[in-house]
């Protein structure tokens, strides 16, 4: 018996806002001229009537996406912020790809963080089903005293910068293994050898051990780290040594992160 097939209903056409499309064409036209361009030229390149172009240009100037200088229009701060955001996302993707390579090669989650403007910034993490990262149950920025990433970054700062950080983010016990007070932490950081990995065992999260290696990119303190379940802690130092041997080849990727 033959069956009758019912044709699938076509997807409705998306609703497009003409004024938005025209404004975007103008932004693209302005972006094509490093030194700016006058309204008549922009209208012609965007395929718009001059009165419409004037109206949209005034609106874009008002919103900060364009500036008018000496009779020509150039990109404004709002447009530059959008471009910078896209570039940062691309750089983060490059870093994550690099970390993912070593996650797969070593079989551990890999982290990358920098110390910027007085705060710990976890830039990227590469993890997988067989190598899950430590759950951020307490804000990494506020608990640098307890995890290897933070301890490694703080060890790269000078003494006044360390004390300033710890005034803003006091030492508090997160687990029974966390360093107990600021004095003990400062002594530990001062004794940390510059080229040695920083190892933390269950100080941030019970059941996890971590190791971090210092990276200097320009004047910015940075670090890469790995973590493992405590029952696999015998793998920690061999794995971080393997990662450290590869850092030189990865610095070109990490340089992107400094402006993220």
Automatic annotation (TrEMBL):
Domain spans labelled HTH iclR-type: 17-77
PROSITE patterns: HTH_ICLR, ICLR_ED
Domain IclR-ED: 78-260
Matches recorded under SMART domains: HTH_ICLR
Protein's UniProt keywords contain Repeat: no
Swiss-Prot/TrEMBL keywords: DNA-binding, Transcription, Transcription regulation
Source species, domain of life: Bacteria
Alphabetized InterPro entries for the sequence: GAF-like_dom_sf (IPR029016), HTH_MetabolicPath_Reg (IPR050707), Tscrpt_reg_IclR_C (IPR014757), Tscrpt_reg_IclR_N (IPR005471), WH-like_DNA-bd_sf (IPR036388), WH_DNA-bd_sf (IPR036390)
Protein name, per record: Transcriptional regulator
């Amino acid at each position: 018996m033959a069956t009758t097939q019912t044709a699938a209903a076509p997807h409705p056409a998306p609703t497009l806002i003409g004024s938005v499309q025209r404004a975007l064409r103008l932004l693209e036209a302005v972006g094509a001229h490093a030194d700016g361009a006058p309204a008549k030229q922009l209208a012609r390149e965007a395929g718009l009537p001059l009165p419409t172009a004037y109206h949209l240009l005034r609106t874009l100037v008002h919103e900060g996406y364009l500036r008018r200088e000496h009779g020509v229009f150039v990109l404004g701060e709002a447009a530059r912020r959008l471009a910078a955001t896209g570039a940062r996302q691309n750089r983060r993707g490059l870093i994550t790809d690099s970390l993912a390579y070593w996650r797969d090669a070593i079989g551990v989650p890999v982290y990358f963080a920098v110390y910027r403007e007085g705060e710990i910034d976890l830039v990227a993490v590469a993890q997988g089903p067989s190598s899950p990262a430590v759950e951020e149950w307490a804000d990494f920025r506020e608990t640098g005293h307890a995890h290897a990433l933070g301890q490694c970054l703080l060890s790269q700062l000078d003494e006044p910068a360390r004390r300033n950080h710890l005034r803003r983010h006091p030492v508090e016990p997160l687990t029974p293994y966390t360093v107990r007070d600021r004095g003990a932490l400062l002594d530990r950081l001062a004794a940390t050898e510059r080229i040695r990995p920083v190892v933390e065992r269950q100080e941030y999260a019970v059941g996890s051990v971590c190791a971090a290696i210092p990276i200097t990119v320009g004047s910015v303190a940075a670090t890469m780290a790995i973590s493992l379940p405590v029952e696999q802690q015998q793998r920690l130092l061999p794995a971080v040594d393997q990662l450290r041997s590869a850092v030189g080849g990865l610095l070109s990727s990490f340089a992107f992160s400094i402006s993220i």
